[in-house]
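2024-03-11 09:14:02 DEBUG pipeline.ingest accepted 1 chain
2024-03-11 09:14:02 DEBUG pipeline.ingest length=332
2024-03-11 09:14:03 DEBUG pipeline.predict start
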Amino acid sequence: MPNTTTPAQYVLILIDLAEQAGCGREQLLAGTALASTGLERIGARVEDREFTRLALNALELTGQPDLGLQLGMRLNLGAHAVLGQAFMTCNNLAEVIDLFLKYHHLLSSSLEVSFGDDGKHCCFTSMETPYDLPPHFSHELLYSAVLNTLRGLLNRQDLQMQVDLPYPAPAHASRYHQVFGEQVCFDCDVGRVRFDSALMKERLPSSNPALRSLYEQECARLLAGLQEESSTAQQTLRLLRKLEGQYPQMPRIAQMLNLSPRTYRRRLQQEQKSFQDLLDQVRAEHATHYLRSSRLPLSTIAYRVGFNDTSNFRRAYQKWTGRTPREVRYGD
């Protein structure tokens, strides 16, 4: 797993939620580095594997299947730290979306989303969820956090969104309607949220153009720091995940990372990695996501990850993962 990270404030909010539900600190932190270092040593960011272990512990200990929704609805503008402050200075939601697409890795360095606006609805689509957790938890967290953030920016606590989820309705599906409204659909091909495009032009109550450039400069500085900490292999994985379905050749990836192909190859060799192995890792991740979280035919999944022949995809997938597509889809 690449060394991706989550803001520490998200971790602290999750811990607070679990403790309010009666969980003991020792059991909650079991299996994490925080168990030995303590919360007083927590830094600005926490590795995703630590957040994942903590969330799994919290799900088990609380017995609350809607914990992702609860956490997302606690992630307000203050929880997003400097990026949340930058959002508040924007003139309208269109500027907020621009900032989010530029700096969303500050919220989770493994988060990948795409955005579209057809003139009637704006749509966030997430093909990859940021954590190795049950799909419902990750989608609940991401989409309810989007909703809560928009409500705070627009000062509209009654705002609702249309939500598509790429998994069957869970036992706590009624909670989705309580949070998002009536337009919630399960068993969709991909996960997405939609809201009225007219909201993009609404002036934000907290708008402060004089401060925006200052906050954006700080966001740029923090993002540059994150990227500098990443190895070439990690930057490659992050880029390939973002370009899901396209899978450029090695020279194009090198160019996108502002490196010559020769320098790019040398850096990967120093990290004992190869471009083909990284490409296959991401294709396996995307295929696994489709197998577990969608009802797409195997031929469609094969095509989406770069295969024209389903049998070739089956062989490649088993080589990548040690399991057949059927075993992953049906839990054989």
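2024-03-11 09:14:41 DEBUG pipeline.report The chain has a mean pLDDT of 89.
2024-03-11 09:14:41 DEBUG pipeline.predict end
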